[in-house]
Amino acid sequence: MAMLRSPLAPDHFPDLPDIAGVRFAAAAAGVKYQDRTDVMLAVMDPGTTIAGVFTKSATRSAPVLDCQAKLAAAADTASASGAAILVNSGNSNAFTGHHGQTSVAEITRSVADITNIPEARVFTASTGVIGEPLPHDRIVAKISALNNALDTSAIDSAAHAIMTTDTFAKGAMATVDIGGKTVSISGIAKGSGMIAPDMATMLVYIFTDATLAQNDLQQLLSSICDRTFNCITVDSDTSTSDSLMLCATGASDVDVAGNSDFAMALETVMLDLSHQVVRDGEGATKFVEIQVSGAMNDHDAKVHGLSIANSPLVKTAVAGEDPNWGRIVMAIGKSGAAADRDRLSISFGDVLVAEKGWVSPTYKEADGAAEMKKSNITIKIDMGLADGSATVWTCDLTHQYISINADYRS
Amino acid sequence: MAMLRSPLAPDHFPDLPDIAGVRFAAAAAGVKYQDRTDVMLAVMDPGTTIAGVFTKSATRSAPVLDCQAKLAAAADTASASGAAILVNSGNSNAFTGHHGQTSVAEITRSVADITNIPEARVFTASTGVIGEPLPHDRIVAKISALNNALDTSAIDSAAHAIMTTDTFAKGAMATVDIGGKTVSISGIAKGSGMIAPDMATMLVYIFTDATLAQNDLQQLLSSICDRTFNCITVDSDTSTSDSLMLCATGASDVDVAGNSDFAMALETVMLDLSHQVVRDGEGATKFVEIQVSGAMNDHDAKVHGLSIANSPLVKTAVAGEDPNWGRIVMAIGKSGAAADRDRLSISFGDVLVAEKGWVSPTYKEADGAAEMKKSNITIKIDMGLADGSATVWTCDLTHQYISINADYRS
């Protein structure tokens, strides 16, 4: 089953600025896929600080556990040496028992030997089928060639190599002027692919030539992640492999500690990539933004937003272009966060649908239906309680999602 | 779109024993449906105690709020007078603002006048579309006729009148001998109907001729509900109208306080009805029992079980007859309850699939695939941590679910 490019995909892969201090290479190792690249190596210069955010799954993969242990231990030594990231697609090396750890060790040792970077600074990720042994020998056999091919301009080939069943490669960039110097940010992601025999997994790698200490980098990344990647959902199923890493090479010689322009630029890149993941959601035909305001607090607003975004009945209504606001009332009611039926108001785009515990007297079904015909739909909820707000993003639930996940055997 | 009877339906509606002290009638009021009954009235003799469990939704319907208030207030007066339950299908009287309360008041006042039962002991429920005004006049116009038609043997007509998009009427019964006397339990339910323009809603009414004080009745009902109706899920979406009421007429003169035979018989009836709701789940072609053992505690076991049961990726794998145990690992990992990847074991029926953090050496894909071809599938999880256990029930997620909820406009 060849998948068509998502109807919600951007026109083309963006032109990402080179990030001084980081080089990329991709290769075809034949882990699972044939006739395409499936391994990427990124090598960073000494001075690079690295932060990461990973899946909270209790059954997370061997590479995730290895990255988390290394980042936790590296807080002190941080940028003394270079660093490397190796990612393969086609096999997630998850639920592979102790064999999974062996595979990670074999790969990181080989990368360390060939790149002359300490093994404690070599990170890996694997994405694809769960529970099958990773043929790490095929990857190890390519590391010399990858090392020889490293190129500052090859980030696009890296973006393609990490795809599994994505229908398009995902990239985003930003530049920001700080004190007359230009700081650049380039990021790539994969996620929510189609025809996956297992759950969608998400990998994100972002690089910048800014200078930032690891603790500050981690704090910034975690904070923005809560408003971007932690606010998207395709089907409420959490991967065992989700990984997001941010590498700051410092090559620009611009220290961005406390710089709000840099933080905003980074958030732009992360928001862009997170939206691209939703736009490539399995079977997606609609991109949905859910804005919740007036909640008791920001946490409650996010709980309501995600309850709406994860509701199969809301998602099928969106697929059917049905302005079925009763299902939104249902999803708010079940979320567990505070709600008062009679203070709630609901709009589709700028069309006020319901207020004061019932349908608005100004609402016309034809207006709601017109909003639902759009490819990009905004649902606004005002809880009418206090000042808490949050925005979350999702896609619709279609026959294609069932086809991808039920009709074709893994 | 006429819906076929669910492939998982029982052969026929069971022969329910009459319960002395309660009479039923059904009528066609034309609330929404034409050419079928859509209102049922049950009237109980003085001496009847009543307990109830209702949706926890923050946007619950006017009838639910009214029932909850009356049951809370009636704790003392309990069985001094008779009691009545009136249920309509076709309109849920939910998110109808203050008009919803007016409709409830008009109906309960009329029932009280005509049956000579205090309004505080008249309960109602409504199930169907959300957000449309309930044409309560059509219901009120039928109450005299309903009262005149009351019949102890008419519980089957009541079961049919409360159906919305159910594909079959649901009933279950049990009798138990206590001290040489027979105590009977008869119950009816509706839920998880198809082609519903709004979410599935569940209503359950159970009647017994046993004698039990209201507090004891409520405690028993709540406790069993946690192991039966609170352990089923079709699509993780919680209705604004879910109501479960248990009425004990006392006509058998058998006090069942502390009687474990009665409690077991009641649990059998409630389990049967809850399974019938799942078997009529929208688009369901497979009935799935998920047995979780070895969890840190019973609560954790239920959290894991419901995480598996609600996972779209697990449910689509079941629909596709795919023994995709990787998705079960994923669902356990994301649940938030304690799990250790390397102590976990997973079986489909009696086929051990995975253990010790990886696929079992004895597992053959053909064996797993054969289990998944069955209509009734059992998934067993041993967490390997402690003694917590729980069983939950669900159905698969199919194209028909999408068709019901997306392809047809409300």
Structure commentary:
Chains A, B: The active site is at residue 201. Chains A, B: Belongs to the ArgJ family. Two copies of one chain form a homodimer. Chain A is α+β, with helices and mostly antiparallel strands and 410 residues long. Chain A folds into two domains: 22-279, L-amino peptidase D-ALA esterase/amidase (4-Layer Sandwich), CATH 3.60.70.12; 287-407, ArgJ beta chain, C-terminal domain (Ubiquitin-like (UB roll)). The first copy, chain A, has helices at 62-73, 97-115, 136-140, 143-148, 155-161, 214-227, 260-279, 298-310, 312-319, 325-334, 365-372, 399-407; strands at 22-27, 39-44, 49-54, 83-91, 122-129, 170-178, 181-190, 203-208, 232-233, 243-248, 287-295, 345-348, 351-355, 358-359, 376-382, 388-395. Chain A has a seven-stranded mixed sheet with strand order 9-16-11-15-12-13-14, with helices on both faces. In chain A, strand 6 and strand 7 (181-190) form a beta hairpin. Chain A is globular, with a radius of gyration of 22 Å. Chains A and B meet through helix 2, helix 9, helix 10, strand 14 and helix 12 of A and helix 2, helix 9, helix 10, strand 14 and helix 12 of B.
